[in-house]
Design a protein that fits this description.
single chain, alpha/beta, two-stranded antiparallel ribbon, globular, 9 strands, 56% helix, 17 helices, 356 residues
Length: 356
């Protein structure tokens, strides 16, 4: 094996690592009827709409009763978080010949957390060997590589990095964008310093599923950028929000919570005002960014799409107002003023929406 599918762009590595993809395949074999509250776990985390998914099921379905799958089903009975723990442990593993070995992408305590809440590498290795995972992965290497090149072209990470670094007091030595063709709506990010390297890792889906008859190529690029950008900029936004955490927690939490998020939306996953504010800010910042590089027509489509996502699907029912206020402040800012410096004005505006 020649190593994982991987491409680079400046400070960013796009990759589909072998054992990480093995874990996605294992999740695709778990029970489809598991729920976290009203959320169906399976269809939220596994994209069943692609020909790749059908190929996975055809190749691996005979192994649905393997101990690895049985253990994963038990993990998902406990918490959706076990999906994330197992994926991160798999990401921190490498396929060497027919053996699965521990890798060292994360600091020690993160590795310890993943290991304590996930399946063993021996189970992963046994599943890989009995299902002939290696040949399946190698047979799809060209497609994986093309998907990574496509993501690289759509995202233009050097431009994203430059804008975020100018607007927020954070910078990273390395970005890793980890892509699986099986991932659906559950995306997540980690940031840490390890061996002197400040790293941000994002686990997301690819950019191949957009309707080219409905959207232009630039619109598709903008829509996909939103999917990844709103993971990346948590690494910047959260750092500034930490400075105002007490005020933010009061403004969007406790008695004010219902002013900002519907109980039947994302509220059950974002437990306090600090987390709710960061969702507002990361998605609003994405639209401010796209407004600097896309045409007015494309920007309008991106705005409408994001507002619909945030308000109708996720329940952040004041998102349009929040974004428009941030954008107004950004467009009328003083020379050299950044989004970081606009935080006090945004928090004052948020307080006024609460009637304060």
């Amino acid at each position: 094996m020649d190593g994982p599918a991987r491409v680079s762009d400046h400070k960013t590595i796009f990759e589909t690592p072998a054992v990480y993809e093995l874990m996605h395949i294992a999740f695709a074999l778990t029970d489809t009827g598991k729920y976290s509250g009203t959320l169906n776990i399976y269809y939220n985390v596994v994209d069943t709409s692609t020909s790749y998914y059908k190929q996975v099921i055809n190749h691996f379905s005979a192994h649905k009763n393997h101990p690895l799958i049985i253990h994963l089903n038990k993990h998902l009975d406990k918490s959706l978080m076990h999906y994330l723990y197992n994926l991160q442990k798999a990401y921190n593993s490498g396929l060497v010949g027919n053996k699965i070995k521990r890798d060292f992408y994360f600091p020690f305590f993160q590795r310890l957390l993943h290991s304590s809440k996930s399946v063993s590498r021996n189970l992963m290795e046994d599943f890989a060997q009995k299902s002939d995972f290696k040949s399946f992965y190698e047979n799809h290497r060209v497609g994986d590589q093309q998907a990574l090149e496509d993501a690289k072209g759509k995202l233009n990470m050097p431009a994203v990095e430059s804008w975020l670094s100018a607007e927020f007091p954070a910078d990273y030595d390395t970005f890793r964008i980890v892509i699986s063709p099986l991932m659906n709506a559950t995306h997540f990010t980690k940031r840490f310093r390890f061996k002197g390297n400040k790293t941000s890792i994002m686990w997301v889906k690819d950019g191949l599923g957009y309707n080219q008859a409905l959207y232009s190529q630039t619109q598709i690029a903008g829509l996909y950028t939103g999917l990844v950008f709103t993971e990346i900029d948590h690494n910047y936004v959260n750092k500034v929000s930490d400075t105002y955490k007490k005020d933010i927690s009061r403004i969007m939490g406790d008695n004010n919570r219902a002013n900002w998020i519907k109980a039947d939306g994302d509220g059950k996953y974002y437990s306090n005002g600090y987390k709710i504010f960061n969702e507002y800010m990361t998605h609003a910042a994405y639209l401010v960014y796209t407004g600097t590089i896309y045409s007015k027509g494309d920007q309008l489509l991106l705005e409408q799409s994001r507002i619909k996502l945030m308000e109708e699907r996720r329940g952040y029912w004041q998102f349009e107002k929040f974004y428009k206020e941030l954008n107004r402040l950004y467009q009328t800012r003083k020379q050299g003023e950044t989004i970081t410096q606009l935080y006090p004005k945004m928090l004052d505006w948020c307080s006024r929406q609460n009637g304060e």
